[in-house]
Give the backbone structure.
Amino acid sequence: MRGLMVLLIVPIAACGGGGGGGGGSGIDPRLARVDVYEAQRVRVLGDPGAGVVGMAATETADVPITGAITYDGSVTISVETSVPIFLAGDAAITMDFAAGDVSGEMRNMFGRREGQALQDYAGTLVIADGTVDDANGWSVDYAGTLESGSDTLVFAGQVVGSLYGAEAEAIAGAEFGALIDVNGDIVDGSLTIVAEEEGGASDVD
């Protein structure tokens, strides 16, 4: 998984500041969120190009079998339209290790078409029908609609991922062959999730 994760945040940040109502500073506050997302990605997955080592995958023997953990992090999405769309937002995921269930949502989305300004995207992607197993694997179905201006993006797919850290304190997952309905046309896309344990504490064994 580590070698396959795609960095989708750079195209979002490339538009620079301005236009976001940064308290008169001219700095779009959404770009600060991009920095937080990128710092978390590096903590969890590392950055081989910079010689930064991320977290090791959780050993099978250390995967929790009781309790639950809530993870907070980010989702990044690439939509391969003729003018590509790049999105980012918050991801909140709860894994119930006792029941083997996963649920959550992806929200507060923003992004841009390549070469254009940042826009907020209304809507939420709901995470449901998830499973987590004792061999360091998890998967979730997700679905929902995001809208901005004349664009309506409809999602329905599945993310597959792994646990990271000595005590499963982080997760990462992806869908690289996503099919996304953009204004009635089906296009290819990619979606990645990186998240860490909320508050740094859990009730799992």
